[in-house]
From TrEMBL:
Active site: 201
Lineage: Bacteria, Bacillati, Bacillota, Bacilli, Bacillales
GO terms for cellular component: cytosol
Residues that coordinate or bind (6R)-5,10-methylene-5,6,7,8-tetrahydrofolate: 224, 318
Protein name stated in the entry: Thymidylate synthase
Source organism (scientific name): Paenibacillus endophyticus
Pfam families: Thymidylat_synt
Gene Ontology biological-process annotations: dTMP biosynthetic process; dTTP biosynthetic process; methylation
Tagged with keyword Ribosomal protein: no
Domain of life where this protein originates: Bacteria
Reaction equation(s) it catalyzes: dUMP + (6R)-5,10-methylene-5,6,7,8-tetrahydrofolate = 7,8-dihydrofolate + dTMP
Amino acid sequence: MSNSEQTYLQLLKYVLEHGTKKEDRTGTGTISVFGYQMRFDLSEGFPLLTTKRVPFRLIASELIWFIQGDTNIRYLLQHNNNIWNEWAFKRWVESTVYTGPDMTNFGLRSQTDSAFAADYNEQMELFKQKVLTDDRFAEEFGELGNVYGKQWREWKTSQGDTIDQLKDVVATIKQNPDSRRLIVSAWNPEDVPSNMALPPCHTMFQFYVTNGKLSCQLYQRSADIFLGIPFNIASYALLTNMVAHECGLEVGEFIHTLGDAHIYTNHMEQIKTQLNREPGTLPTLALNADKKSIFDIAMEDLSIENYNPQPAIKAPVAV
């Protein structure tokens, strides 16, 4: 049984037992705690949950998208990754260009109204095809603004310059591994109000080197425990492995610090199902040793081995 998976399952139990009911931006409702920390020893295996299938392909393609500084969902759609669709779709259906059926509050309505869900699915498919095939449409409506990749790779300064935070941090790890400034921030107060489809939930991360091992701590301001957190754990574990590979280090820990850690009220049955399952053995990560830089790694350079999870558990996304 994996200590890593037990760490995550304990978070589920803790919030169920100690969480407070809160309203939220999406109108769904949550139970929430403020302030929680988990630690994952990356040497014991890759922390991809086994009590439900978590799609590594989606995690890897999203992370590569971040690392490349991309902010348009076209790359994700080209890799059959739909996890950012709703936020781009929202911009389209709220624009003056959109002429289809009323999509107001589509996130909740599509869960409870089958007739509306059919209209929503039709419009979403139309939207995806237009992003994939129409360059002008993709440029306007596939774009999410200055979200993660933009902040990681091209942070705007008051002098009109840009800072490549991720590139600088990797270089510093190589040159001065004892630095206490190995930080990348996605939270840009100037861009949050107007230039982001969704303000960053995982707001900043810091690397730490000791005894030839690289560790990473993430601060996450808002944590969707059932759907989002399993992705975040695996994504930052993958990032830590990739940076360690480039810097000639072993992997240490991933430390995950949560601000508002919440369970959406429409995920309760799914969580009960998951907690009734027995964790299995963690898989291992295979990374193409010929790729020396994280900026050169592509999807075909990453794979998960010996992953034998229990079936996926579907749940609605709150938008």
